[in-house]
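To whoever picks this up:

The parser on our side crashed when reading a file containing two proteins. I've narrowed it down to the boundary between the first structure block and the second sequence. Both blocks are reproduced below exactly, byte for byte. First block:
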Amino acid sequence: MEYFNYNGQQVLCVSGSEIIISKKNPEGIVSASLVKKWQREDNDPQNPLVIQRACYNRSLLLNFSKIPAKYRDEISTKLGVPVDQAKVKPFKDKIIADPIALTYFSNYSLSDGRLLPTEKQMEYATNASVLNAVKEVYQSMKSARGKVGTGMNGFWARAVMAANDVRAEKNHSLPSKEVPFKRVYGKYIEIGYESLISRKYCNNNSRKVSDKIEHLIMSLYTMPNKPFASHTHILYLQFIQGQLELVDQKTGELFDPKDFYLNGKPIEVSETTVRNYLTQPKNAAIVDRARMGAHRYNNTHRPHHHRHAPNFSFSKLSMDDRDLPRKCINGQWVKAYYAYDVASGCVVGYAYSLNKNEALFLDCMKNMFRLIDKQGFGMPMEVEVENHLVNKFFDDLDAMFPFVHVCTPGNSQEKRAEHMNRAKKFGIEKKQQNGIGRWWAKHKAYAVDRDLVNNEFVEKNQLPYERLVADDIKACNDYNNDPHPNQKKYPKKTRWQVLIENMNPNMARPRKSIIYKAIGNKTETSIRRNHYATVMGAKYAISGFDVLDKLIPNNYNVEAYYLPDEEGIIHEVYLYQGDNFLCKADKIHTYNESKAEATAIDWENYKRQGKVVSEFDAATKKAKKELASPVVYKSEILKEALAEEVEIVPQTKEEAPVQIDELIENNNYDDEDAGDSL
């Protein structure tokens, strides 16, 4: 029910939708036909039955005084006292959701950084909506009190009555009495939304466990012996009762039990309270930092990065070591080191040893660059390594790769190679090899049996070192030729196909002079006959006459860096003198001196060597021509010649260039049989 202003008069009305029987309101009081009958019989235009006709978004309003008495009584019985209901109705319609209030309370941060509980956010937002309606009605009645005729007398009593009437429906928690309700409204008008938040939140005086007690409980829990929560509770009670003393080892200060008293009495807490504070998520992250190892803590609490693999091969490599899952017959674990391409997942380098040391890492790098050289790949853009075993080579890696990423120690999640090791182990290795797993594995398929020999457990499937290495190399090749795990992105493609077909277009060619110096083999040698250096019994020709200009005076000694291929053959070496790079030296190939037996390859080798000699002669002859031809005279003779203005012309002899055939005819070369061939 509600009052409606009709021709300047406040008319008490009832909504037709509340009393007319319909599908939506089967429990109505009168039928629609009966209301139409009343309307036909109504002949008083000054005080009609129908005050407002029903139309879109507007309900039918009937003059309550024009409804027959017996129906008025039934309406009053069912809907309540008409006057009281009319006063509540406009207030109830004005209670609408306040989105600003809901946003305020959902984002409100308490003094300890927490947010309000969700149910409190909704409760406070509803309280604000009710008070907003009270404010609107109050201001409306105050501005129109002359027209209404009731003034403001009794407003708060009616406001409380209206608020209580909608309490169950709106689920608000405002006071049910007039005085406290008016007080809450006054604070709300003065302060705003914050006045509705209970003061119990973050009020240390109302907390049985103060910040000091919470801090002490957490400190006790992180002692080196890692006490249980129950033992921590006992230690706290013994401390506040004076049965033991506590010392802070960091500062050397004694904890004072009086700091944990309230009103002269020690503050006792229950074991449940202690456990709740230790397991509170924020506190758990703090105490576990002291109680857990770095690896376990990192995998339990520490946030991790979210990333996706690169789109191109050789954009990033990831390297890591592991123990092969089966032992040698001597009981030792075979150590393996792998290099993976992150985009394709391919193994692009591997090495094996019984010792986990820097040599294992270097062997893996050598194996990887043999593959790069053989396949004609470019230089990988980035390499991801760990600090262990690699810290001695950081400067070399910086010189070799455009980008180097060193993973955080103990953070196995960071290294892509860790995930690929697992995929390889429980993928291709599990399919092909026996004994893949661990004796402590819970899953039966991964559990490996052990035998008890001489009171010691010995794992089965122990094999010779060579067999284990051969099996793993086969597993690497088969793993590379397995379907790529992301078949949605690379349909029907193997890892190796993804590697080959998606090379990073920005890769540069490998700088072998730097790579070989960093990871290659090294030997001391010397440049002989201004032509070659001997390495591992073979001869390697310098790139040209200009190389001699880079040598230290009277010093032909050099260092040769090289990397044998898979068959142990050295095709080229890189010569340095100290840190000064000299040149790349290619292997010299001999030719058959018999023209009757010479092949096409022999003639190519013959021409190549002849070209070297010809270029050397041409360079030296050109330089010789550029030399001056000074003539030395005694000073008296020179004075006399100058006095007589005699022209002094030095005599020179023109020399014809020497051809290769002349050198051969003059036997200006060494025989291989003599041990010193070109």
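<<boundary where parser fails>>
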Amino acid sequence: MVPYMTDYVAPIADMRFVATRLAGFDEVAALGVDDLSLELVDAIFEEAGRFAGGVLAPLNRVGDTQGSRLENGVVRTPDGWAAAYRGFVDGGWNAVPFDPDHGGQGLPRLVAIALQEMWTSANMAFSLCPMLTQGAVEAISHHGTDAQKAIFLPKLISGQWTGTMNLTEPQAGSDVGAVRTRAIKDGDHYLITGQKIFITYGDHELTENIIHLVLARTPDAPAGVKGISLFVVPKYLVGPNGEIQGRNDLRCASLEHKMGIHASPTAVMAFGDNGGAIGTLVGEENKGLQYMFTMMNNARLSVGLEGIAIAERATQRASAYARERVQSRDIAGTDATPVTIIHHPDVRRMLLTMRSLTEASRALAYLAASSLDVAKRHPDPEVRKSRQAMVDLLIPVVKGWGTEVGSEVAAIGVQVHGGMGFIEETGAAQYMRDAKIAEIYEGTNGIQANDLIGRKLTRDGGVTAKAFIAGMRDIDAGLAAAGAELAGLRAALADGITALDSATDWILASQKGDPRDAAAGAVSFMRLWGTVAGGWLLAQGAVAAKAELAQSGGDEGFLKAKIITARFYAEQILPRASSLKAAATAGSATLMAMTEDAF
């Protein structure tokens, strides 16, 4: 039996390469972040890598086997969780991307996303807790009152308290307009009654308080999404100076039994069993969904990263196994002695598929993160506007394609292990089980794809998308100058960009006719975007690596691997673009031809 592997080594070299060569670190650093240097980032990455690998990764299996449990009304997390969370907070890791005015460190999202990847790769179930807190901080920072900011932000940012997002109800999944939770005004606060489901870290014993952001409907609210309001509802009531007071009228009614992420307590939350949980309004009544989208967009980028992080962990596990597992002779030799399976071409195909997809999707996520930094910090409002439009376009792609990459790579990882991959003790199966939820979180990937075609692509008539596509074509000169070594990559990328450009025109035109035509191809279109944009970023990396090799100043093995990975992606992954274009533009006639009773 191959022992379960707890080792996780943060891929700091690739993170640094992506941040500096592909995602615009220099541009972000020039936007007024005090003392931000590569030396500082390297030190942060090294220390974060030690915490992720030394503290969080060994708990991943513990959390999977023990899970969180509800005992006599109290949620208990697995062994080691509380100590790990204290270490996380004491290390200042929770505060990295937040406003220094409330105790944050003010570091760019480009730096924070690399750290978030480390936490998630090491222990996805653990990482979900600070991820939800991050979303709560964003929502209150943008839309909360001065009093709410003063009371809640410092302790959420420090990690002394955690935050949640309460949207989903039994009858209202993605259709948030069907929310029935009620909010009745009572003096300077509201009384909240109702039930929410699928609330990640809805209850736990890690912190002294949990701050719930809850969508609810006031009595005279309009029907549908226009009648939703947002409320801050703490587990324990909080005084004007942030002091803990009595228990609020809310509880964890049960915990879900899930396919994966067993250590993350996914709660059914009951509000108002005894008259109503006390909450305070965020912003104005009936604008809650607008406010919550601040939190959701933040979370969608983070969820996309979850897929990428699990892909990294699965790739590390499969590569280690392939270097250790001895089976069959080398088909290229005459020696009958068995060799490690990494010698076999098909195993190498699987490993390079895993590696190339992981690196391509990482680059796209980091590009979105750095663009968020520019959209937030740049002094020119037109630059901020255009970069935010780019972020809005990329987020559904990062979320949708990134999480599908996570599931695909984790599944290949099981295959690399062969029969041992089907045995839980080897660990490969956990990555596959954990990865699946990311395709569902924050709106299923079908919803992300429809958001891409229905909002992000069409709201400006495709201007942002077409500008992005035109920008991708600029790499051609660099690939041409690189010569024969990258000629295949150049040709495959050109074909992919053309396929994406053509599909984009078709989607834009189809929106003027039967809306089902574009919707039928939305997921394929989303995958096409990710596949081509990922190839473009790997191509940039290959050009940069080749230039560094010519200067003889870098890590030769690392740089050569970047070139080989990009070439493999061009040969094995970019050809998907033509079939994805065909599926994206096929229309809905065949889909809609089947009668309902024939399914």
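After patching the parser it read the second block fine. The mean pLDDT is 95. The CA atoms of residues 121 and 313 lie 5 Å apart.
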